[in-house]
Amino acid sequence: MTQYDWMDDALCRQVSPEIFHPTIQETSLANKAKAVCANCPVIDACLEYALEMPGVTGIYAGTNEKERRLMRRRREQNATQGNQGVRDTGTAGQQTSIRIPTR
Ligand code: SF4
After folding, report:
1. What percent of the chain has pLDDT over 90?
2. Is the Cβ–Cβ distance between 46 and 58 less than 8 Å?
3. CB 63 within 8 A of CB 71
């Protein structure tokens, strides 16, 4: 078992790889890729992989490079601010954070 075994279950292996590398103008292709990701059973592992590899391009875990850059920045800000009350849900394409109630 390797750290990349999750890739065996990647839904993107079953569709045309071009949709995961759209140009900026090809928003419909990007949306198709994001729809595939939304149903992928390994989306969480994929997102962590893509966040750890800033050089990867294209759609990963329903996010594009710009979205992942923002997620990395937000994580860094949370880490440096010691903001333990905010957790990035890591949900692809939604760019959401939830606030965990503190007591
Ligand atoms: S989340 Fe998307 S890019 Fe990642 S493995 Fe699944 S289908 Fe592929």
Report:
1. 73
2. no
3. yes
Q: What is the pTM of this model?
A: 0.78
37-45: long-range pairs with CB below 8 Å, 24+: 37/11, 37/12, 37/61, 37/62, 37/92, 37/93, 38/62, 38/92, 38/93, 39/11, 40/9, 40/10, 40/11, 40/12, 41/9, 41/11, 42/6, 42/7, 42/9, 42/10, 43/92, 44/90, 45/6
> Could you identify the atom of ligand 1 that is nearest to the CA of residue 7?
5
Q: Which residue puts its alpha carbon closest to atom 8 of ligand 1?
A: 12
Contacts of 21 (CB under 8 A, 6+ apart): 57, 58, 59
**Ligand 1 lined by 10 (C-beta under 6 Å):** yes
Q: Residue 97: enclosing H or E segment and its boundaries?
A: strand 97-99
